[in-house]
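As a warm-up, study this chain.
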Amino acid sequence: MKKFAICLSLLLLFLAVKSQDTIIKWDTFEAVGEKFAKQQKPILIFCNDPKDKLSQKMLKETFGNSEVAAYLNVLFYNINFDLTSKDTITFFNGQKFVKGSKYHTLSNFLFGSQQIKVPSIIIFDKNAQGRIFDGFRNRDSIFPILIYYSEEVYASTEYEAWEKLYFKAYPPGQQTIITRLNLNWISMAELSTEMAKSPKKVLIDIYNNYSVSQTVMRLQVYNDPDIANYIKQYYYPVLLNYKSTEEFEFRGVKYANSNPPNGYHQFAIAALEGKMRFPAFLILDEQLNLLDRIQFFTDKEFFINICEFYAKEAYKTIDFKTFIEQKKKYK
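Now compare it with the structure written out below.
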């Protein structure tokens, strides 16, 4: 059985090198609005009061943390919003806001009907949809939020479900995860041998070690005992690093990494149609025909549903939505 240890610090080290420094690059609302129009990245707004102790603690300890700063500098646009500011601020939509009696009038707009709390962070995703996370956050408790938006987990999963799985994989205070794997993953080369003996459907996880959401899937979704047993019964589980140097033949075509060790594997490029977005997994039938390509984070419920949909061959007669509705009906 293959074992692995994947740590968040590996990703943070990579980002720290790319970011050149570990001091957060705070921008103005006006500057971020212009940058976002040219290139969409999530936006973090730190709402704080200079007289509030927790605000200052978070500014110093959390945003002053080199790992947090490195991550934010590369993957987010960042705004340090002093709620007591007396400046006139132009919001992203061009609307202007002025100082208020206690807090800036922009804060009323941002918090809407919710009570204004400090400190808080407001994050806008790439689609300009915002959410408020109030209260003090340290290094450990801010990362699930940041990863949720930087890796676009929000496109498929509610935050509360994501956070629960994240903390199981990355317990607070621990950076390295070492776990017993319940699946005996095989290589692409080994797949040919196994298929010759006894054909089954195939699950291929094309993985990127820098994708934290993919690591969470491997540790907390694939590795769930019930899911692992189901996969072992109906599928051959295959792991392929998207930068693998492995050479193999698949359906009569030879694949390799044309530019090791940093190039993308030719099979990964072909299978994902050049869209290197992770998490990413494929489901193939017994003749190695592609049945589905999933390139987003899935929780346990969705994943077991998709596994059953193909294992039970329901896909031959109904669509996935109908399959789910029938499952709920006869539950």
